[in-house]
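Summary for the steering committee. One of the milestones for this cycle was to obtain a three-dimensional model of the protein with flavin-adenine dinucleotide bound, which we needed before selecting residues for the alanine scan. The sequence and ligand used are listed below.
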Amino acid sequence: MIGAATNEKIDTHVPLLIVGAGAAGLCAALAAKEAGIQPVVIERDAVPSGSTALSAGLIPAAGTRFQRAKGITDDPQLFAADIQRKAHGEADAVVVAAVGKGSGPLVEWLADRYDLPFDVVDNFNYPGHSAMRMHGLPTRTGLELINRLRNAAEANDIILLTERVAERLLAEPDGRIRGVEILHGDGTRERIGCAALILACNGYGGNPDLVRQFIPEMANALYFGHPGNRGDAVLWGEALGAQLAHLGGYQGHGSVATPHNILITWAVMMQGGIQINKEGRRFCDESRGYSEHATDVMRQPGGIAWDVFDARIAGVARQFEDFRDAERAGAVLTGKTIAELADAMHVPVETFSAEWAEVENLKAKSGQDRYGRKFTPGQRCVAPFHAVKVTGALFHTQGGLAIDASGRVKRKDGTLFPNLFAAGGAAAGVSGASAAGYLSGNGLLTATVLGRLAGRSAAQVSH
Ligand SMILES: Cc1cc2nc3c(=O)[nH]c(=O)nc-3n(C[C@H](O)[C@H](O)[C@H](O)COP(=O)(O)OP(=O)(O)OC[C@H]3O[C@@H](n4cnc5c(N)ncnc54)[C@H](O)[C@@H]3O)c2cc1C
């Protein structure tokens, strides 16, 4: 994994090497290019996609002009407080402050300089956010995000070397990175030297051994992220003596349509939908967050649950292409009554009807249920009703290399490596040590904002 740099012949030399062409790698490359450095990005796939392409592409950002235009009041401190509240105070306060502060400028930078047509989602909010701050592109897909970032990189003559896997870091005994050994698609190898290196190769969701080791509760879960994210940053970091943090943190999701494997947006819960199990019973507070909900769903009989909602909520969910795909795939069942829906779902009608009636009653009187979930009259559902069978999944890991606010990787003793940076899923995130600490959007937040910061800082040492 790590070679002694002094003995290794370098084939070619570049100022800045970036491993991974997801949101983190491409934002880093754009920022470095603006700072006057020509970055070279190494990507394992023929066309960059990463977990970024699988996401809904929603980036949380505070204090943007998109928010102001819609009368939404927000600021970086409020956002940082939301992140830390969800992370139970476990996230690195310096990094949290940096991403909170950098989020608004990041979205405006991508919109104004690279023509990414963001707007702010204002017809539902995600759990834990005290302001509407999710910014998305017209299709609400990560595929659109990654394609637009790649187009921006190409338009700015950034060198993107695809079908190349970074296999080995070449480092001096003091941790200074000299380069990376690359495996080409045709089996040949090349050693590229660099003045600075940014690891943007995401986490270890695609490495079953590491998942079993660090997050055993998800060892048998469906992995819904990019399979090429095999934990290289963590393995290299460990070998280099880097500080690793929060390896038990991850983004789970409790609402993936099964057997279709399509994400059903959590908007269906936040708008007033509920989840029931095969026995027709509810089993927890759906408004806490989708991440920790993954294991709750997996613990139900058969490892599944049903999302239940109405036509109004389906209308909100339809802004997501994934939801429209789920409808096209036949994943969304419809019933004119709850009894008819229960029949289609093959769940006990009496239990399900009683649960449904109780929740509707609580909504009417702004009540609170046995799990502590609070309802409002605006969440009431009327026929026709819909249901989707879902399971829990692992989306991406949040633990990784500990960094400072500029993305520079820390050694075990807290000192900084001279020319090694990390961003996105390769770095320790801002979600603390468990799935429950993940605030919606933490993934792309740290990919894009820290990618940009790491690109800028790496440019300073790339000479
Ligand atoms: C279904 C789903 C929905 C999500 N929705 C959201 C959302 O709406 N909002 C949000 O904030 N987050 C969301 N996330 C999380 C988000 O997608 C990730 O946190 C984010 O994309 C990480 O970006 P990244 O650049 O670090 O990694 P990636 O986008 O995964 O990019 C890493 C790249 O590195 C490459 N790579 C890996 N190892 C090597 C190697 N050794 N050599 C060369 N290349 C390598 C990979 O091929 C990949 O292209 C979602 C995730 C999933 C799975």
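Key point for the committee: The longest helix spans residues 93-114.
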